Protein backbone atom coordinates (compact mmCIF):
# COMPACT_ATOMS: atom_id res chain seq x y z
CA UNK A 1 0.00 0.00 0.00
CA UNK A 2 2.95 2.37 0.52
CA UNK A 3 4.01 4.62 -2.31
CA UNK A 4 6.95 2.44 -3.44
CA UNK A 5 6.98 -0.75 -1.37
CA UNK A 6 7.00 -3.21 -4.18
CA UNK A 7 10.16 -4.68 -5.54
CA UNK A 8 10.14 -6.06 -9.11
CA UNK A 9 8.35 -9.37 -8.96
CA UNK A 10 8.91 -12.59 -10.67
CA UNK A 11 6.05 -14.58 -9.14
CA UNK A 12 3.01 -14.47 -6.91
CA UNK A 13 4.74 -16.38 -4.09
CA UNK A 14 8.09 -14.60 -3.97
CA UNK A 15 8.76 -13.42 -0.43
CA UNK A 16 8.09 -9.74 0.21
CA UNK A 17 5.31 -7.23 -0.08
CA UNK A 18 3.07 -6.95 -3.11
CA UNK A 19 -0.07 -5.08 -3.95
CA UNK A 20 -3.32 -6.55 -2.64
CA UNK A 21 -4.65 -6.16 -6.18
CA UNK A 22 -1.92 -8.47 -7.41
CA UNK A 23 -2.49 -10.99 -4.63
CA UNK A 24 -5.90 -11.96 -5.99
CA UNK A 25 -8.23 -9.75 -3.93
CA UNK A 26 -9.41 -7.69 -6.88
CA UNK A 27 -11.24 -9.04 -9.89
CA UNK A 28 -13.65 -6.85 -11.82
CA UNK A 29 -14.60 -9.87 -13.92
CA UNK A 30 -15.68 -11.90 -10.91
CA UNK A 31 -19.36 -12.76 -11.04
CA UNK A 32 -20.65 -13.20 -7.48
CA UNK A 33 -22.24 -16.58 -6.83
CA UNK A 34 -25.72 -16.88 -5.31
CA UNK A 35 -24.08 -18.46 -2.29
CA UNK A 36 -21.51 -15.68 -1.74
CA UNK A 37 -21.79 -13.30 1.18
CA UNK A 38 -21.64 -9.80 -0.31
CA UNK A 39 -20.64 -6.59 1.41
CA UNK A 40 -20.46 -3.01 0.28
CA UNK A 41 -18.01 -0.74 2.08
CA UNK A 42 -17.66 3.02 1.85
CA UNK A 43 -13.93 3.60 1.56
CA UNK A 44 -12.07 6.86 2.13
CA UNK A 45 -8.44 6.20 1.14
CA UNK A 46 -5.61 8.23 2.61
CA UNK A 47 -4.28 10.90 0.27
CA UNK A 48 -2.22 9.32 -2.48
CA UNK A 49 -3.67 5.83 -1.99
CA UNK A 50 -5.26 4.36 -5.10
CA UNK A 51 -8.97 3.60 -4.58
CA UNK A 52 -8.86 0.17 -6.25
CA UNK A 53 -5.83 -0.89 -4.22
CA UNK A 54 -7.57 0.32 -1.05
CA UNK A 55 -10.66 -1.70 -2.01
CA UNK A 56 -8.51 -4.78 -2.68
CA UNK A 57 -6.88 -4.28 0.72
CA UNK A 58 -10.29 -4.23 2.40
CA UNK A 59 -11.15 -7.51 0.67
CA UNK A 60 -7.79 -8.94 1.71
CA UNK A 61 -7.74 -7.81 5.32
CA UNK A 62 -11.34 -8.93 5.88
CA UNK A 63 -10.61 -12.41 4.53
CA UNK A 64 -7.29 -14.21 4.23
CA UNK A 65 -4.59 -11.59 3.72
CA UNK A 66 -1.75 -10.26 5.78
CA UNK A 67 0.63 -7.45 4.80
CA UNK A 68 3.19 -9.66 3.13
CA UNK A 69 3.20 -12.73 0.93
CA UNK A 70 2.96 -15.96 2.93
CA UNK A 71 3.78 -19.24 1.26
CA UNK A 72 1.33 -21.07 3.54
CA UNK A 73 -1.44 -19.73 1.29
CA UNK A 74 -0.42 -22.58 -0.99
CA UNK A 75 -1.50 -25.10 1.63
CA UNK A 76 -5.06 -23.83 1.31
CA UNK A 77 -7.68 -23.41 -1.38
CA UNK A 78 -6.57 -19.79 -1.37
CA UNK A 79 -8.19 -18.86 -4.68
CA UNK A 80 -11.54 -19.74 -3.17
CA UNK A 81 -10.92 -18.28 0.27
CA UNK A 82 -9.68 -14.90 -0.90
CA UNK A 83 -12.48 -12.33 -0.82
CA UNK A 84 -12.76 -10.53 -4.12
CA UNK A 85 -13.51 -6.89 -4.70
CA UNK A 86 -15.58 -7.06 -7.87
CA UNK A 87 -16.68 -3.47 -8.25
CA UNK A 88 -15.64 0.03 -7.16
CA UNK A 89 -17.84 3.10 -7.69
CA UNK A 90 -17.21 6.69 -6.64
CA UNK A 91 -19.81 7.81 -4.08
CA UNK A 92 -22.12 10.31 -5.80
CA UNK A 93 -21.51 13.83 -4.61
CA UNK A 94 -18.67 12.90 -2.25
CA UNK A 95 -15.00 13.71 -2.53
CA UNK A 96 -12.57 10.78 -2.45
CA UNK A 97 -15.10 8.21 -1.23
CA UNK A 98 -15.82 4.94 -3.01
CA UNK A 99 -18.25 2.09 -2.67
CA UNK A 100 -16.30 -1.17 -2.81
CA UNK A 101 -18.32 -4.33 -3.42
CA UNK A 102 -16.73 -7.46 -2.01
CA UNK A 103 -17.72 -11.11 -2.36
CA UNK A 104 -16.84 -13.75 0.25
CA UNK A 105 -17.13 -17.48 -0.31
CA UNK A 106 -19.69 -19.15 1.97
CA UNK A 107 -17.03 -21.52 3.29
CA UNK A 108 -15.37 -18.63 5.10
CA UNK A 109 -18.17 -18.45 7.67
CA UNK A 110 -19.29 -20.71 10.45
CA UNK A 111 -23.01 -21.32 10.40
CA UNK A 112 -25.29 -19.57 12.90
CA UNK A 113 -22.63 -17.24 14.33
CA UNK A 114 -22.82 -13.46 14.11
CA UNK A 115 -19.57 -13.44 16.04
CA UNK A 116 -17.81 -15.29 13.27
CA UNK A 117 -19.36 -13.20 10.50
CA UNK A 118 -18.51 -9.91 12.18
CA UNK A 119 -14.99 -10.96 13.17
CA UNK A 120 -14.24 -11.18 9.45
CA UNK A 121 -16.08 -8.25 7.95
CA UNK A 122 -15.45 -5.76 10.75
CA UNK A 123 -12.53 -7.52 12.42
CA UNK A 124 -9.17 -5.80 11.79
CA UNK A 125 -9.90 -3.94 8.66
CA UNK A 126 -11.37 -0.78 10.22
CA UNK A 127 -8.00 0.13 11.70
CA UNK A 128 -6.04 -0.29 8.49
CA UNK A 129 -3.68 2.71 8.19
CA UNK A 130 -3.96 3.36 4.43
CA UNK A 131 -7.65 4.12 4.94
CA UNK A 132 -8.80 7.40 6.42
CA UNK A 133 -12.22 5.98 7.12
CA UNK A 134 -14.25 2.89 6.38
CA UNK A 135 -17.94 2.10 6.70
CA UNK A 136 -19.77 -1.17 6.21
CA UNK A 137 -22.86 0.05 4.37
CA UNK A 138 -24.78 -3.13 3.62
CA UNK A 139 -24.54 -6.90 3.23
CA UNK A 140 -26.28 -9.53 1.14
CA UNK A 141 -26.60 -12.71 3.13
CA UNK A 142 -27.19 -15.69 0.85
CA UNK A 143 -30.22 -17.78 1.62
CA UNK A 144 -28.03 -20.80 2.30
CA UNK A 145 -26.43 -18.82 5.12
CA UNK A 146 -29.69 -17.27 6.35
CA UNK A 147 -31.13 -20.76 6.83
CA UNK A 148 -28.42 -21.63 9.35
CA UNK A 149 -30.15 -19.23 11.79
CA UNK A 150 -33.47 -19.78 13.55
CA UNK A 151 -34.28 -16.05 13.59
CA UNK A 152 -36.79 -14.33 15.85
CA UNK A 153 -38.19 -16.70 18.49
CA UNK A 154 -41.73 -15.29 18.25
CA UNK A 155 -42.21 -12.98 15.26
CA UNK A 156 -44.85 -10.36 14.56
CA UNK A 157 -47.74 -12.73 13.79
CA UNK A 158 -47.37 -14.85 16.91
CA UNK A 159 -46.70 -11.82 19.11
CA UNK A 160 -49.98 -10.27 17.99
CA UNK A 161 -51.80 -13.53 18.67
CA UNK A 162 -50.33 -13.87 22.14
CA UNK A 163 -51.18 -10.28 22.95
CA UNK A 164 -54.56 -10.38 21.20
CA UNK A 165 -53.89 -7.03 19.51
CA UNK A 166 -54.45 -6.49 15.81
CA UNK A 167 -54.72 -3.76 13.19
CA UNK A 168 -52.79 -1.04 14.96
CA UNK A 169 -49.30 -0.31 16.23
CA UNK A 170 -48.67 -1.39 19.79
CA UNK A 171 -48.16 1.33 22.37
CA UNK A 172 -45.43 1.45 24.97
CA UNK A 173 -43.58 3.70 27.35
CA UNK A 174 -40.10 3.75 28.80
CA UNK A 175 -40.20 4.30 32.55
CA UNK A 176 -38.68 7.65 33.51
CA UNK A 177 -36.61 8.87 35.19
CA UNK A 178 -34.18 6.39 33.74
CA UNK A 179 -32.45 5.81 37.05
CA UNK A 180 -33.20 6.23 40.70
CA UNK A 181 -36.79 5.04 41.28
CA UNK A 182 -37.33 2.47 44.01
CA UNK A 183 -39.04 -0.79 43.06
CA UNK A 184 -42.33 0.26 44.56
CA UNK A 185 -42.45 3.63 42.81
CA UNK A 186 -41.27 2.04 39.59
CA UNK A 187 -44.14 -0.43 39.74
CA UNK A 188 -46.58 2.44 40.20
CA UNK A 189 -45.38 4.04 36.97
CA UNK A 190 -45.88 0.74 35.17
CA UNK A 191 -49.36 0.27 36.59
CA UNK A 192 -50.51 3.80 35.74
CA UNK A 193 -49.20 3.62 32.19
CA UNK A 194 -50.76 0.22 31.47
CA UNK A 195 -54.05 1.07 33.14
CA UNK A 196 -54.20 4.30 31.11
CA UNK A 197 -54.20 2.39 27.83
CA UNK A 198 -50.70 1.32 26.85
CA UNK A 199 -49.90 -2.26 25.88
CA UNK A 200 -46.34 -2.27 27.18
CA UNK A 201 -44.00 -0.50 29.48
CA UNK A 202 -40.27 -0.83 29.29
CA UNK A 203 -37.16 -0.76 31.42
CA UNK A 204 -34.64 1.71 30.14
CA UNK A 205 -31.34 0.55 28.70
CA UNK A 206 -29.36 1.30 31.86
CA UNK A 207 -31.75 -0.25 34.38
CA UNK A 208 -30.17 -3.47 35.61
CA UNK A 209 -29.64 -4.03 39.33
CA UNK A 210 -28.40 -0.90 41.02
CA UNK A 211 -28.39 -0.06 44.70
CA UNK A 212 -31.63 1.93 44.49
CA UNK A 213 -33.52 -1.01 42.97
CA UNK A 214 -32.45 -4.65 42.93
CA UNK A 215 -33.54 -6.51 39.81
CA UNK A 216 -35.72 -8.93 41.71
CA UNK A 217 -37.65 -6.08 43.34
CA UNK A 218 -38.15 -4.51 39.94
CA UNK A 219 -39.49 -7.73 38.46
CA UNK A 220 -41.86 -8.36 41.39
CA UNK A 221 -43.31 -4.85 41.47
CA UNK A 222 -43.55 -4.68 37.69
CA UNK A 223 -45.39 -7.98 37.39
CA UNK A 224 -47.76 -7.02 40.16
CA UNK A 225 -48.48 -3.86 38.14
CA UNK A 226 -48.98 -5.87 34.93
CA UNK A 227 -51.37 -8.30 36.61
CA UNK A 228 -53.40 -5.54 38.21
CA UNK A 229 -53.59 -3.56 34.98
CA UNK A 230 -54.71 -6.67 33.11
CA UNK A 231 -57.43 -7.31 35.67
CA UNK A 232 -58.50 -3.68 35.54
CA UNK A 233 -58.67 -3.35 31.75
CA UNK A 234 -59.38 -6.88 30.53
CA UNK A 235 -56.51 -6.48 28.04
CA UNK A 236 -53.22 -8.31 27.86
CA UNK A 237 -50.35 -6.16 29.06
CA UNK A 238 -46.62 -6.57 29.25
CA UNK A 239 -43.50 -4.94 30.55
CA UNK A 240 -40.08 -5.53 29.02
CA UNK A 241 -38.05 -6.80 31.95
CA UNK A 242 -34.44 -5.97 31.16
CA UNK A 243 -32.42 -9.10 31.93
CA UNK A 244 -29.08 -7.62 30.79
CA UNK A 245 -26.37 -8.37 33.33
CA UNK A 246 -22.62 -8.73 33.69
CA UNK A 247 -22.50 -12.40 32.78
CA UNK A 248 -24.60 -14.98 31.00
CA UNK A 249 -25.40 -16.92 34.17
CA UNK A 250 -27.13 -13.89 35.65
CA UNK A 251 -28.91 -13.16 32.38
CA UNK A 252 -30.40 -16.66 32.46
CA UNK A 253 -31.25 -16.36 36.14
CA UNK A 254 -33.15 -13.12 35.52
CA UNK A 255 -34.90 -14.54 32.46
CA UNK A 256 -36.00 -17.61 34.42
CA UNK A 257 -37.44 -15.43 37.16
CA UNK A 258 -39.31 -13.30 34.60
CA UNK A 259 -40.80 -16.50 33.23
CA UNK A 260 -41.78 -17.78 36.67
CA UNK A 261 -43.62 -14.53 37.29
CA UNK A 262 -45.58 -14.96 34.06
CA UNK A 263 -44.01 -12.21 31.96
CA UNK A 264 -44.68 -12.46 28.22
CA UNK A 265 -41.55 -10.53 27.29
CA UNK A 266 -37.97 -9.90 28.36
CA UNK A 267 -35.49 -7.31 27.20
CA UNK A 268 -31.79 -7.18 26.43
CA UNK A 269 -29.39 -4.43 25.43
CA UNK A 270 -27.27 -4.70 22.27
CA UNK A 271 -24.16 -4.18 24.41
CA UNK A 272 -24.48 -7.67 25.95
CA UNK A 273 -22.84 -8.91 22.75
CA UNK A 274 -23.66 -11.14 19.85
CA UNK A 275 -23.07 -14.50 21.53
CA UNK A 276 -25.19 -13.52 24.50
CA UNK A 277 -27.95 -12.33 22.18
CA UNK A 278 -27.98 -15.63 20.30
CA UNK A 279 -27.97 -17.58 23.56
CA UNK A 280 -30.88 -15.71 25.11
CA UNK A 281 -32.75 -15.92 21.81
CA UNK A 282 -32.48 -19.70 21.99
CA UNK A 283 -33.75 -19.58 25.56
CA UNK A 284 -36.72 -17.43 24.47
CA UNK A 285 -37.58 -19.87 21.70
CA UNK A 286 -37.62 -22.74 24.22
CA UNK A 287 -39.67 -20.74 26.72
CA UNK A 288 -42.21 -18.99 24.46
CA UNK A 289 -40.90 -15.59 25.44
CA UNK A 290 -40.92 -12.44 23.30
CA UNK A 291 -37.44 -10.87 23.08
CA UNK A 292 -37.07 -7.10 23.01
CA UNK A 293 -33.72 -5.61 21.94
CA UNK A 294 -32.69 -2.08 22.87
CA UNK A 295 -29.90 -0.97 20.53
CA UNK A 296 -27.96 0.69 23.35
CA UNK A 297 -24.57 1.88 22.12
CA UNK A 298 -25.19 1.58 18.40
CA UNK A 299 -24.81 5.28 17.61
CA UNK A 300 -21.14 5.14 18.62
CA UNK A 301 -20.50 3.35 15.33
CA UNK A 302 -23.65 3.66 13.17
CA UNK A 303 -24.27 7.37 13.06
CA UNK A 304 -21.41 8.89 11.07
CA UNK A 305 -21.65 8.31 7.39
CA UNK A 306 -17.97 7.88 6.62
CA UNK A 307 -16.87 5.46 9.36
CA UNK A 308 -18.41 2.55 11.23
CA UNK A 309 -21.23 0.14 10.46
CA UNK A 310 -24.63 1.17 9.15
CA UNK A 311 -27.53 0.27 11.40
CA UNK A 312 -29.06 -1.57 8.44
CA UNK A 313 -26.29 -4.15 8.81
CA UNK A 314 -26.91 -4.43 12.55
CA UNK A 315 -30.64 -4.85 11.86
CA UNK A 316 -29.86 -7.69 9.44
CA UNK A 317 -27.58 -9.38 11.93
CA UNK A 318 -30.20 -9.07 14.65
CA UNK A 319 -32.92 -10.62 12.50
CA UNK A 320 -30.59 -13.56 11.98
CA UNK A 321 -29.51 -13.69 15.64
CA UNK A 322 -33.18 -13.82 16.60
CA UNK A 323 -34.80 -10.87 18.34
CA UNK A 324 -38.53 -10.09 18.21
CA UNK A 325 -38.32 -6.32 18.77
CA UNK A 326 -35.58 -3.92 17.75
CA UNK A 327 -35.34 -0.18 18.24
CA UNK A 328 -35.17 1.17 14.71
CA UNK A 329 -35.91 4.90 14.90
CA UNK A 330 -38.84 7.31 14.86
CA UNK A 331 -37.99 9.74 12.02
CA UNK A 332 -39.71 12.58 13.90
CA UNK A 333 -38.32 12.08 17.43
CA UNK A 334 -35.22 13.24 19.28
CA UNK A 335 -32.69 10.74 17.91
CA UNK A 336 -31.03 10.36 14.51
CA UNK A 337 -33.30 8.93 11.80
CA UNK A 338 -33.56 10.16 8.23
CA UNK A 339 -36.97 9.06 6.79
CA UNK A 340 -35.61 7.17 3.77
CA UNK A 341 -32.83 5.46 5.72
CA UNK A 342 -35.22 4.51 8.51
CA UNK A 343 -37.61 3.03 5.96
CA UNK A 344 -34.78 0.72 4.90
CA UNK A 345 -34.33 -0.48 8.49
CA UNK A 346 -38.06 -1.13 8.88
CA UNK A 347 -38.15 -3.08 5.62
CA UNK A 348 -35.25 -5.24 6.79
CA UNK A 349 -37.20 -6.08 9.94
CA UNK A 350 -40.61 -6.69 8.43
CA UNK A 351 -40.42 -7.94 4.85
CA UNK A 352 -39.99 -11.50 3.62
CA UNK A 353 -37.85 -10.20 0.76
CA UNK A 354 -36.08 -6.86 0.38
CA UNK A 355 -35.56 -5.78 -3.22
CA UNK A 356 -32.60 -3.48 -3.82
CA UNK A 357 -33.73 0.06 -2.90
CA UNK A 358 -30.82 2.47 -3.13
CA UNK A 359 -33.02 5.37 -2.12
CA UNK A 360 -33.53 3.58 1.21
CA UNK A 361 -29.90 2.54 1.52
CA UNK A 362 -30.54 -1.09 0.52
CA UNK A 363 -27.77 -2.05 -1.91
CA UNK A 364 -28.81 -5.65 -2.51
CA UNK A 365 -31.81 -7.90 -2.84
CA UNK A 366 -32.19 -9.85 0.39
CA UNK A 367 -34.25 -13.00 0.74
CA UNK A 368 -35.08 -13.74 4.38
CA UNK A 369 -35.72 -17.41 3.72
CA UNK A 370 -38.88 -17.53 5.80
CA UNK A 371 -37.29 -16.19 8.98
CA UNK A 372 -39.90 -14.63 11.22
CA UNK A 373 -40.40 -10.89 11.14
CA UNK A 374 -39.06 -8.47 13.70
CA UNK A 375 -41.31 -5.79 15.20
CA UNK A 376 -39.50 -2.44 14.88
CA UNK A 377 -39.76 -0.14 17.88
CA UNK A 378 -40.07 3.62 17.46
CA UNK A 379 -38.85 5.32 20.56
CA UNK A 380 -37.15 8.52 21.58
CA UNK A 381 -38.75 11.95 21.94
CA UNK A 382 -42.17 11.22 20.42
CA UNK A 383 -45.59 12.46 21.56
CA UNK A 384 -49.29 12.15 20.74
CA UNK A 385 -49.28 15.22 18.46
CA UNK A 386 -47.09 13.34 15.97
CA UNK A 387 -49.41 10.33 15.63
CA UNK A 388 -50.29 10.96 11.96
CA UNK A 389 -46.60 11.28 11.04
CA UNK A 390 -45.65 8.18 12.98
CA UNK A 391 -48.34 6.08 11.29
CA UNK A 392 -47.37 7.48 7.88
CA UNK A 393 -43.62 6.86 8.22
CA UNK A 394 -43.64 3.65 10.22
CA UNK A 395 -46.85 1.79 9.36
CA UNK A 396 -48.87 -0.57 11.48
CA UNK A 397 -46.55 -3.38 12.55
CA UNK A 398 -44.43 -1.52 15.07
CA UNK A 399 -44.36 -0.42 18.68
CA UNK A 400 -44.72 3.30 19.31
CA UNK A 401 -43.05 4.09 22.56
CA UNK A 402 -43.55 7.31 24.45
CA UNK A 403 -41.44 7.72 27.59
CA UNK A 404 -41.45 11.42 28.37
CA UNK A 405 -44.51 11.60 26.10
CA UNK A 406 -46.49 9.51 28.63
CA UNK A 407 -44.87 10.16 31.97
CA UNK A 408 -44.49 13.90 31.40
CA UNK A 409 -48.22 14.46 30.94
CA UNK A 410 -49.45 17.32 33.16
CA UNK A 411 -52.33 15.25 34.57
CA UNK A 412 -50.21 12.21 35.30
CA UNK A 413 -49.04 8.97 33.77
CA UNK A 414 -52.43 7.34 33.18
CA UNK A 415 -53.65 10.49 31.43
CA UNK A 416 -50.51 10.45 29.25
CA UNK A 417 -51.22 6.87 28.29
CA UNK A 418 -54.87 7.63 27.52
CA UNK A 419 -53.85 10.56 25.33
CA UNK A 420 -51.61 8.29 23.26
CA UNK A 421 -54.18 5.51 22.98
CA UNK A 422 -56.98 7.85 21.93
CA UNK A 423 -54.71 9.66 19.43
CA UNK A 424 -53.66 6.34 17.93
CA UNK A 425 -57.17 4.92 17.67
CA UNK A 426 -58.46 8.15 16.12
CA UNK A 427 -55.71 8.02 13.51
CA UNK A 428 -56.27 4.32 12.73
CA UNK A 429 -59.99 4.97 12.33
CA UNK A 430 -59.30 7.87 9.95
CA UNK A 431 -56.91 5.68 7.94
CA UNK A 432 -59.41 2.85 7.79
CA UNK A 433 -62.07 5.26 6.59
CA UNK A 434 -59.78 6.13 3.69
CA UNK A 435 -59.04 9.68 4.82
CA UNK A 436 -55.78 11.46 4.01
CA UNK A 437 -54.73 11.16 7.63
CA UNK A 438 -51.29 12.66 7.08
CA UNK A 439 -52.64 15.94 5.71
CA UNK A 440 -55.63 15.97 8.05
CA UNK A 441 -53.64 14.71 11.06
CA UNK A 442 -53.80 17.84 13.23
CA UNK A 443 -57.54 18.20 12.56
CA UNK A 444 -58.17 14.52 13.35
CA UNK A 445 -56.31 14.88 16.64
CA UNK A 446 -58.09 18.10 17.51
CA UNK A 447 -61.47 16.47 16.89
CA UNK A 448 -60.53 13.48 19.05
CA UNK A 449 -59.30 15.83 21.78
CA UNK A 450 -62.72 17.44 22.02
CA UNK A 451 -63.96 14.24 23.64
CA UNK A 452 -60.76 13.44 25.55
CA UNK A 453 -59.31 15.96 27.98
CA UNK A 454 -56.01 14.08 28.45
CA UNK A 455 -55.39 14.27 24.69
CA UNK A 456 -56.32 17.97 24.61
CA UNK A 457 -53.80 18.58 27.40
CA UNK A 458 -51.06 16.54 25.68
CA UNK A 459 -51.53 18.45 22.43
CA UNK A 460 -51.41 21.73 24.31
CA UNK A 461 -48.22 20.91 26.24
CA UNK A 462 -46.22 19.38 23.40
CA UNK A 463 -47.73 21.15 20.38
CA UNK A 464 -44.55 22.95 19.37
CA UNK A 465 -42.05 20.22 20.14
CA UNK A 466 -40.14 19.04 17.06
CA UNK A 467 -36.58 17.90 16.48
CA UNK A 468 -35.73 19.33 13.10
CA UNK A 469 -32.00 18.84 12.68
CA UNK A 470 -29.96 17.84 9.68
CA UNK A 471 -29.58 14.10 9.46
CA UNK A 472 -26.07 12.68 9.67
CA UNK A 473 -26.92 9.58 7.66
CA UNK A 474 -29.12 9.99 4.59
CA UNK A 475 -28.95 7.83 1.46
CA UNK A 476 -26.53 8.77 -1.33
CA UNK A 477 -28.89 7.87 -4.13
CA UNK A 478 -32.13 9.44 -5.25
CA UNK A 479 -34.74 7.12 -6.80
CA UNK A 480 -33.86 7.97 -10.40
CA UNK A 481 -30.22 6.84 -10.06
CA UNK A 482 -29.57 3.20 -10.89
CA UNK A 483 -26.35 1.32 -10.22
CA UNK A 484 -27.82 -2.13 -10.87
O1 LIG B 1 -35.46 5.95 26.62
C1 LIG B 1 -35.66 6.01 25.45
C2 LIG B 1 -36.68 6.96 24.92
O2 LIG B 1 -37.27 7.78 25.92
P1 LIG B 1 -38.27 8.98 25.57
O3 LIG B 1 -39.48 8.37 24.90
O4 LIG B 1 -38.61 9.63 26.89
O5 LIG B 1 -37.54 9.94 24.67
C3 LIG B 1 -34.92 5.05 24.56
O6 LIG B 1 -33.76 4.60 25.21
C4 LIG B 1 -34.54 5.57 23.22
O7 LIG B 1 -35.68 5.52 22.45
C5 LIG B 1 -33.46 4.78 22.49
O8 LIG B 1 -33.26 5.24 21.18
P2 LIG B 1 -33.54 4.38 19.86
O9 LIG B 1 -34.95 3.91 19.95
O10 LIG B 1 -33.32 5.33 18.73
O11 LIG B 1 -32.57 3.27 19.87
MG1 LIG C 1 -33.56 4.94 27.00
From TrEMBL:
Keywords: Calvin cycle, Carbon dioxide fixation, Lyase, Magnesium, Metal-binding, Monooxygenase, Oxidoreductase. The record marks 334 as: Transition state stabilizer. One of its GO terms (molecular function) is monooxygenase activity. Substrate binds at residues 124, 174, 178, 295, 327, 379. Mg(2+) binds at residues 202, 204-205. PROSITE patterns: RUBISCO_LARGE. Residues 155-462 form the Ribulose bisphosphate carboxylase large subunit C-terminal domain. The modification N6-carboxylysine is found at residue 202. InterPro entries: RuBisCO (IPR033966), RuBisCo_large_chain_AS (IPR020878), RuBisCO_lsu_C (IPR000685), RuBisCO_lsu_C_sf (IPR036376), RuBisCO_lsu_fd_N (IPR017443), RuBisCO_lsu_N_sf (IPR036422), RuBisCO_lsuI (IPR020888). The active site is at residues 176, 294. Its EC number is 4.1.1.39. Binds 1 Mg(2+) ion per subunit. The basic functional RuBisCO is composed of a large chain homodimer in a 'head-to-tail' conformation. In form I RuBisCO this homodimer is arranged in a barrel-like tetramer with the small subunits forming a tetrameric 'cap' on each end of the 'barrel'. PANTHER family: RIBULOSE BISPHOSPHATE CARBOXYLASE (PTHR42704), RIBULOSE BISPHOSPHATE CARBOXYLASE LARGE CHAIN (PTHR42704:SF17). NCBIfam families: PRK04208.1. This is Ribulose bisphosphate carboxylase large chain.
